Amino acid sequence: MAQADEVLAFGVQTRDERAILESAFAGRYPLRCLDVVLNEDTAPLADGYEVVSASVNADLSAPVLRRLDTGGTKAVCQRSTGFNNIDLDEAERLGLYIARVDYYSPYSVAEFAWTLALGLDRNLPRATIRTRDFDFRLDGLLGRDVHGRTIGVIGTGKIGESFARIAAGFGVTLLGWDARPNPACEALGLTYVPLPDLLAASDVISLHVPLLPETHHLIDAPALSTMKPDALLINTSRGGLINSEALVKALKEHRLGGVALDVYEEEAGVFFYDRSHEVVADDVLARLMTFPNVLVTSHQAYFTRDAVEQIVNTTLANVDAYYAGRRTAATLVPRG
User: Could you read off the pLDDT of 9-26 as tens digits, one per residue?
Assistant: First the structure.
């Protein structure tokens, strides 16, 4: 039975996040952490909890929101910025308060995107595997200088701007694509161009746009066909930005230099879990993992102490705002 004001946090799957959550909430609200992700099957666990917190891979579709409402939940505070997984219209109809994390360290994701790009370019995963076996040959490890290359930044908000600032330090040509140009990026020397032009000219392409209906499969077969055959594609934003089947086809046909994915469109139920003792049911993901020029990480770009502390503190502020009946920049649906 939930205590008064107790918050139920779903999807707390690391000791690091749990410790930060418990420290922040201590003395403010009783907190119960669960490692299971919020979805239709797990929603009954929230019965009796007025406030729940959901993780990035939560399913907050209409059926889940209705089940939460039936169980007495009145507020959902999501610990992520993206909210394409939330049925906001249904939440408003039910009178549920919905909040997200409107901002956290953009440097965490931007720095990790460059970590992936450089690791891919210099074949670090392959080199590390070799040296662990005391194989110190350089065959197949030839990389390229970043200096002098053309870098394409798709989405130039806070994270894209941070990525571009790092890129500028390498001495590169910067191209950008965004519906809303960022003057700070233009001051770095970035030139905004149509998306096909960016894809055709860039040696490294990094995705930093949100997943919306208009950006779903933004990188599809036609887009992939316009890229340089030695281009590197980096995605630390949302998996649904890339058509994964088209990506596999392009890789099989040697039409890309390499791909680094911190996100994957069917990652729910896979990322954040140990599936090492199971048969992989996702044929597309299994195929992607076989390419020597593909680097996959498990949605960890945001995972720095700085960023997680900001996420947790914003979540705590969202709980405060709910009880106070206040609307903030992080509120998606105000208290009904």
Answer: 999 999 999 999 999 999
Across the beta sheet with 51-54, the strand order is: 31-33, 7-9, 51-54, 75-78, 97-99, 331-333
Q: What is the pLDDT of residues 203-250, one digit of tens each?
A: 999 999 999 999 999 999 999 999 999 999 999 999 999 999 999 999
Residue 238 falls in the annotated catalytic set? yes
Is 137 assigned a catalytic role? no
Active-site residue (options: 238, 265, 287, 335)? 238
Residue for token digits 């390229």? 144
Q: How far is CA 141 from CA 124, 202, 235, 295, in A?
A: 8, 22, 22, 15
Domains and their CATH numbers in the chain? 7-104+304-333 (3.40.50.720), 106-296 (3.40.50.720)
φ, ψ of residue 294 to 5 degrees: the values are -120, 130
The verdict on whether 299 is a catalytic residue reads: yes
**Which among 59, 124, 39, 170 has a CA at the least distance from the CA of 297?**
124
Residue 35 has pLDDT above 80, yes or no: yes
The reported pTM is: 0.91
pLDDT band at 1 (very low <50, low <70, confident <90, very high): low
Q: Which residue has the higher pLDDT, 257 or 272?
A: 257
Which listed residue (79, 287, 299, 335) is catalytic? 299
Catalytic residue among 265, 267, 287, 335: 267
